[in-house]
Design a protein that fits this description.
The protein contains 5 helices and 6 strands, in the order E-E-E-E-H-E-E-H-H-H-H. It has 2 domains: 77 residues, no CATH class; 77 residues, no CATH class. Helix content is 46%, strand content 21%.
Length: 156
């Protein structure tokens, strides 16, 4: 129930926010009425270990989010994304419509200039691009797995 939010009054500064409506956040006044273990946010003026862990998790999430955004922008700058829609028919006949997703355009990837290819290699994007392209061969397997899950759900 935590997230880092940008502080509008200070560029680049992030504030740890908690979703007070979450059932994982307990008001200290109500806690004695519940059977919850209380982990306060602060001990005096210092953050508790639980708060430090939440902050560390959110901080790492923010770092990874920025890295992902930069990688997507790098790939997009080379014109490699292609919008797709797909209609999948499960083995039982149910049709699923998958809309508004992006894939790597393999012909565009194969036509990259040496300079663009080197730029993607230096950025660390090549491994991700190759993994994505390899994963596109898994659609049949994914449809089969979805059919199995659907059948298992109907049994239980």
């Amino acid at each position: 129930p935590f997230i880092l939010a940008e502080d509008p009054t200070s560029a680049g500064r992030l504030t740890l926010c908690a979703d007070r409506a979450s059932n994982r956040i307990v008001d200290q006044l109500l806690a004695p009425l519940r059977d919850d273990k209380i982990l306060p946010f602060f001990a005096g003026n210092e953050p508790t270990e639980a708060t430090r862990q939440a902050l560390a998790f959110c901080n790492q999430f923010q770092i990874d989010f920025r890295a992902t955004r930069e990688m997507v922008e790098k790939i997009d700058a080379h014109g490699l994304f292609s919008p797709r829609q797909s209609k999948v028919t499960l083995e039982g006949g149910e049709v699923l419509n998958l809309t508004d997703f992006q894939v790597i355009d393999e012909p565009a990837f194969n036509k990259l200039s040496d300079e663009a290819f080197l730029d993607l290699r230096k950025s660390g994007a090549l491994g991700l691009l190759y993994c994505h392209l390899a994963s596109t061969n898994s659609w049949t397997s994914l449809v089969h797995q979805a059919s199995l899950r659907k059948a298992d759900g109907a049994k239980g």
